[in-house]
Specification:
The longest helix is centred in the C-terminal third of the chain and has 22 residues. Helix 3 packs across helix 7, helix 5 crosses helix 6 and helix 5 packs across helix 7. By secondary structure, the chain is α+β, with helices and mostly antiparallel strands. The chain is globular and about 75 Å long. Strands 5, 6, 7, 8, 9, 10, 11, 14 and 15 form a 9-stranded antiparallel β-sheet that branches. The protein has a 5-stranded mixed β-sheet with strand order 17-18-19-21-20, with helices on both faces.
Amino acid sequence: MEIDAPVSSVHELTGAVYYLLQQKKNRAVMFNNVDGGSIPVLTNLFADRMRLALAIGAAEDELNFVYREKESLRIVPEVITAAPVQEVSLDDGSVDLFSLPVVSHNLKDKGPYITAGIMTVKDPDTGVRNSGIYRLMIKDRNHTGIHLAETSHAYYIYRKYMQRKQRKQPMPVAVTIGTHPAVYLSSLSLLGLGEDEFEVAGGLLGEALKLVRCRTVDLEVPAYGEICLEGEIGWNERGPEGPIGEFHSLYSGENNYPVLTVKSISTRKEPIYLDICSGGREHQLMGGLPRTGMIYKAAKKACAGLGDVYLPPSGFCRFSCYLSIKKIAEGEPANAAAAVFGADPIIRHVVVVDDDVNIFDEESVLAAVNRNMSIDDCFIIPRAKGSPIDPVSRNGTVSKIGIDATRSMDSKHSAINYNDSIRELDIEKLFGKNPNL
């Protein structure tokens, strides 16, 4: 939907999104008049699984399967010489981040945050690209704080530059704001170190992702992006970043994080600014789907009868994982849960159910837990590596629990199949031709 009425980028825009979510409307919204400027803001794009499916050419009920299949295809990007994202360029003294409609999302956020920036860096030893989404807090016209997560590959690459501090060599970066949704999903895939997320984007798109060389740094970015920031992260400059409303709906604290210096901005002639509503449903959903590919592969090795995996919004699409399996031996659920913990350190609850339970319906999952689980069917891993932004973490560690909610293989109980009774029912006789139940 489009909104032409004037709207402020300070809390009002996000408030409108939260209102729609309260009304159970997960619509993508284009705000055409933000702070009186000429750049429209698109937000809430990723807040619906149907739109995530559309982004990769899948039906909604086949989203997980199609994502896994396409994630594995890996198509090498193609570098072109001219690109829409470089139609307008500003360098050095002309750079002004306040010219962009950067959103202040929540009342206690430290300030405006770029939340939909795909940051691209390059390993100085191997030359392999790495891309991911990192929040950027606007400090002034050309500096931002950056939450460079300690568990990320970009942080690993940044440490390589820090170790070169005798040369005082900063890490070149490029940040793309707005591009094909499949590129955003690929940038969140749980890949191994040294794998290029842009190759995953090609698999999701079904063709090579078009890249263009940056103007001021030795990097390549999506050619059909909307906005690109080029700059560097120094090896010795840090400053306060946060608080901000996080994906788990709580505020983070203030952190001492590196500083990004923006030296160039390029855009389309009429760019659209993409925002991700920090703490909203899209923040959760878009981070959940790309994690399922690696999780599925790891759990499949541990349990051949694995059906599917799901990271539910109730666990903020990060902390909880549901698995459905066709069990052929006792103990398989525990093996599968342990594999999930190994694949994704952020997850701290895994529930394993039988393959006739719909893991996308939480009522069905909870029914299986209450019907089948005993305390002996759980195992706890104390003080394992987790996420430092997990609200229950202690110095980055959390305790994890795996729950076997499958039926015992020697169970004498059989489940009622309600459809057996419904199948024989004369619905028209009892309720009429057009029942309004």
